[in-house]
Amino acid sequence: MNYKIIPVAVMVLISLSIVIAYDLSEYPKPFIKNGKFDGVLAVGDNAPADDVVALSNIIASLQYSTLENLAQDNVLVDTLAVGEIKTYSFNNIDYETTLNFVELGKAQFIINGWTSNVIKEGKSDILVDGRILTLAKVFNENGIDYATFSLSDEEINIGDYFIEVGAAMLASEVEDIKNVNSILVGHACDNFLVAEVSGRDNCEEGYEKNVGSIESYQMSNGKISIVVTGYSESDTLNAANLLSSYETHKESFKGNAIKVKKDGSPVDYKPIKTDTANNSEDDGDNINFKFSIAIFLVMLISLIVLFFYSKTKKR
Question: Does residue 153 sit in the same domain as residue 181?
Fold first, then answer.
């Protein structure tokens, strides 16, 4: 038997057993690969309606990258409800815009009295002055039809700004949760994957009344799970809404987990740091550094053992 490999094997096993923390400030970058969502999104098999809505909101937020990217490219972007009228000033020209109607994957606009063609999602029409109107997406929320669109000087490929996200899955459809990146929504008693990833052996434990949470877990193989959960269905939905609006709440996304307590209006939240997930608040800021030091020390000790073992064999 080649005993020289023992220290190396020990080093590898110990290194693999270490779980390096994922910081929520990185969201959603680790989940996006080549313009597509790299992972699964899952709710419980018998998920309550609010959980389904929660996951739908998260998916919608991921389906297009930040509108800041469009603004930086001198592209005006907004969302209108059917019948809503707004006036936009774009390059010193006013555009009175109405969303005339919406149907499946299509919409029509009236701009300064000019009526557009019926535009499909991802397609464009040209205004009288040559500017380009592009339909990004249509959707329905609370029974009201909406359309997100852009005005630009040059034709744009809306796919350059939108992220392709797959459909939501049921928990039972996920084969091995620890081998995929994932966003999991629901109470641990409703979604067994939430219980598995978060270590809630008793699905009732680890919750606080009127509080939702966004928790991150990183596996030893590098895969990441984000758990969106809460004491009640509405608490879970509140946490999901915060995750969906991560671009406007960047200051809240720090560490391995945050609690979410709704306070008043739909966008007024009070994120509270928590140690529910991988590590405590204090550990969260320095956890990657600490794990790097741990790995280095393990490797150093293994090399020293290997060195002295080799010396002994030579004697």
Answer: no
Whole-structure pTM over 0.90, yes or no? no
* Domain region containing 232: 22-63+164-278
Distances (CA, A) of 238 to 3, 76, 220, 244, 260: 56, 29, 30, 10, 7
Distance, CA of 96 to CA of 106 (rounded, Å): 20
Angle of helix 49-62 relative to helix 233-244, nearest 10 degrees, comes to 0
Cα–Cα distance, 188 to 200 (Å, whole number): 7
Token pair listed for 72: 């930086």
Distance in angstroms between the alpha carbons of the first and the last residue of the chain: 19
Q: For 66, phi and psi rounded to 5 degrees?
A: -60, 140
Contacts of residue 113, defined as CB under 8 A and 6 or more positions apart, other chains included, come to none
Give pLDDT tens digits for 197-256: 999 999 999 999 999 999 999 998 999 999 999 999 999 999 998 898 887 788 888 889
Q: Which CATH number goes with the domain that contains 214?
A: 3.30.379.10
